[in-house]
Fold this sequence. Notes:
Elements: H1 2-5, H2 12-16, H3 20-28, E1 33-38, E2 44-49, E3 52-54, E4 57-63, H4 67-74, E5 77-84, E6 92-103, H5 106-121, H6 129-135, E7 139-153
Antiparallel strand pairs: 1-2, 1-5, 3-4, 4-7, 5-6, 6-7
Amino acid sequence: MANEAFGRGVNQRDLIKMTETEVEAFLAERQTVSMCTINHDGTIHAVAMWYGFIGSTLAIETKAKAQKVQNLRRDPQLTLLFEAGETYEELRGVELVGHAELSEDPEELWALGVSICERYYGPYTEAMEPFVKAMLHKRVAVKVAVDRVVTWDHRKLGLGTER
């Protein structure tokens, strides 16, 4: 049915939107995020980052003196882009538009460090403590307050990969 609607005046935007449950599942996967902030001259500063969670809040750890942090201190607006898929019919992604809250709270930073470690390296063990401590040295947590969510999942179009 989705294949029949493709290109026939049906709002494809509505066809490819992810549900809230799908968004949560996608963000729970191991993704790399493109983080965009606004430079002092109005240009966009985009960097690839790993992310984790402080409780249910998506967050990123980064050097306290990093360009992205300087940008966020001046203007807390940011956009995060998560994407997956190799071909058009596989593309899916989530764009989070919002603003940042910077935190230097040791408990929040530790929770984030463990979350990132588990997301990208596997279950946390005490043997990883020195790694997490080193990762968090002179760092801040960028907690994301989401104002708008945009999603797409081209798999819902039913295009398949037949050629």
